[in-house]
Specification:
The chain is of the alpha+beta class and 177 residues long. The protein has one domain (39-166): CAP (Pathogenesis-related Protein p14a), CATH 3.40.33. The protein is 37% helix and 16% strand. The chain has five helices and six strands. It has helices at 2-22, 39-55, 66-78, 106-114, 134-139, and strands spanning 63-64, 93-99, 120-121, 126-127, 146-153, 159-166. A hairpin with a 4-residue loop joins strand 3 (120-121) and strand 4 (126-127). Helix 2 runs parallel beside helix 4 (106-114). It is globular and about 40 Å long. It starts with a helix and ends in an 11-residue tail after the last strand. Pfam families: CAP. Residues 41-173 form the SCP domain.
Length: 177
């Protein structure tokens, strides 16, 4: 009985003190998970930038679609080896971004598409000659309700971003807003 009591006291002592013995001191840096790869942070970054552009035209905000994220990741991974700016055959709207190097952000990719607004002529519903504005028009397509995006590093360490939009925009003969 005495051995059992001593054993229980020892276990209680170890259980209570062990966390104090192994916890880091205030001077020991505690590794923290980077928010750069946190899916919620990345989603918020993509969505906020899209919705800022849409709000400038009094358009309803997009919602984040896990289904669209799935397709965006799938397509991005198909391009991992070559980072080619090729569109998938899916029946969704799709914007693709490629940036040399590893440090491109979601905000920068979406800003590049949004910058195409300068090449869009609303009166004629056309892009300026020799300019692309269809990434921008997809972003602001009134009937599009959701978006999902993925950002990967290609094998050559470049950044590749894909956003999928549902339902798709850029319908010939229709205005985006």
């Amino acid at each position: 009985m005495a051995n059992t009591t001593n054993l229980l006291h020892s276990l209680l002592f170890i259980t209570l003190l062990f966390p104090l013995l192994i916890s880091p001191s205030e001077s020991t840096p505690v590794p923290r998970r980077s928010t750069k790869s946190d899916p919620a942070v990345v989603a918020a970054e993509f969505l906020q930038r899209h919705n800022t552009v849409r709000a400038s035209h009094n358009l309803p905000p997009l919602s984040w679609s896990v289904k669209m994220v799935y397709y965006a990741k799938w397509w991005a991974n198909q391009r991992r080896a070559d980072c080619a700016l090729e569109h998938s055959a899916l029946d969704y709207g799709e914007n693709i971004f490629w940036g040399q190097g590893r440090e491109w952000t979601a905000t920068q990719a979406v800003a590049a598409w949004a910058a195409e607004e300068a090449y869009y002529d609303y009166a004629t519903n056309t892009c300026m000659p020799n300019r692309d504005c269809t990434h921008y028009t997809q972003m602001v397509w009134r009937t599009t309700t959701s978006v999902g995006c993925a950002k990967i590093k290609c094998l050559n360490e470049d950044t590749y971003v894909v956003c999928e939009y549902d339902p798709h925009g850029n319908i010939i003969g229709e205005w985006p807003y």
